[in-house]
Give the backbone structure.
Amino acid sequence: MPEFKTLALFFLTALVEIAGCYLSWLWLREDKSAWLLLPGAFCLALFAWLLTLHPTAAGRVYAAYGGVYICAALPWLWAVDGIRPGLWDPAGGGVALASMAIIMCAPRPS
């Protein structure tokens, strides 16, 4: 069960990071209000804090998190950007999740 909690925490972390970056992107690329930087900064600070909740070494968390980030970005692409992922997008997401599982679940010497 701890694996499912870790995976859920990874996905929450990814959504918060994507939201923070997206709000900044709206300001920079879409000429939206600079006020979007406030919730964007809050999201990015929350993202950094959420990364500290993982129970393993920071480098391993960052490496594994990258795979989850890729998978979380694909539904965002569809729901927010309005672009339906193609056949290769979920295939790449699956490879990224497999990489995350290898990093997080590999046996380690005590």
Notes: The chain has a mean pLDDT of 91.
